[in-house]
Amino acid sequence: MTLEVGVKSLRIDYALDGFRDYNDYYRTVAGVSVPGWGPQMVSETFEDNFLPMVGVVYELTPTEQVFASYAQNYALPRGRDIFSTAPSNVVTVPAPEGEESENLEIGVRTLRGGFTGAAALYYTTFDNRLEAFSSEVPGTGGTLETYSQNVGSVEAYGLELTGAWKPEVLNDAVYFNGNFTYNHTTFQDDIPGVAAIAGNLLPDSPEYFLTGGVTWEPTPYLVANLSARYTGERYANFINTSKMEAFTIVSGYVDFGDGFGIGPIENISARLNVDNIFDEDVLAFVFTSVTGDGFFRPQSPRTVSISLTTEF
């Protein structure tokens, strides 16, 4: 059995002296133009001086292990999330609290030469969870700015399976890899005066995620790969009314070259990439919102690229 124990301590000081944004220069109140808040001096300190962590690995056999870990973490809001936005009705904005989390994981793994695999269960709780909000920057005609605010407590639990296999029957020229994740993450509190979200799933957090791939390497100078990524259904907002469809993206590449050279030109290689082979037309990326539909970006269409690399 191997046991590792540690403690970390975090502290950061934020300070801003000057103008933050539009409202510090100029405001409109009841249709009347008035001076802005003017330059501000704002500061905040975030610290947690005791964050323990412990990990243990127990060898059942020379190739099988059981592992477990526990850790406390502390995530800090970014400085611009606290100070860069000047409100319309008060001079300062309350700073978000630092996000605190407790993480527990237990699992098993095997290391058998041609096959490696692991299965793990995890449970995580958050206090003062930081979630991203998006809003339009005034006067920009649609430019979005993303910032973080606290949304209360969040609970997450799930299962992760991962593995890689290189079968001997194929002369070690082909190997497979895959990962499956089930993740259930829910809000535990409402946002007072904003939205009732307790029990809802976190936006942009699919419950099911699956990746897999196969790689063929018949010679040292040729490597080909085909991979697929499945993303399950997820929501675009905190109130879970705007649902995004599940989708699968398949991509691949071929690498040519291994130390080949001509005269002064050395290590010539080429790579062909094809992303989104089946040209899936889906909304793959989202800037989440609390009650609206969110702001979406589509998956890039089928993209073919060729790159040549050499040394002189």
List keywords for this structure.
single chain; 312 residues; mainly beta; Maltoporin, Chain A; 12-stranded antiparallel β-sheet; two-stranded antiparallel ribbon; 62% strand; globular
Describe the structure.
With 312 residues, the protein is mainly beta. The protein has one domain (52-74, 101-311): Maltoporin, Chain A (Beta Barrel). Helices cover 3% and strands 62% of the residues. It is built from 2 helices and 20 strands. It has helices spanning 22-25, 79-83, and strands at residues 2-18, 26-29, 32-35, 40-59, 64-75, 99-111, 115-127, 130-136, 144-150, 154-165, 174-187, 208-219, 222-231, 234-235, 243-244, 247-262, 265-275, 283-287, 295-298, 303-311. A 12-stranded antiparallel β-sheet has the order 1-4-5-6-7-10-11-12-13-16-17-20, with no helix packed on it. A two-stranded antiparallel ribbon has the order 2-3. Strands 8-9 form a two-stranded antiparallel ribbon. Strand 14 and strand 15 (243-244) form a beta hairpin. The termini are far apart. The model has no long low-confidence stretch (mean pLDDT 89).
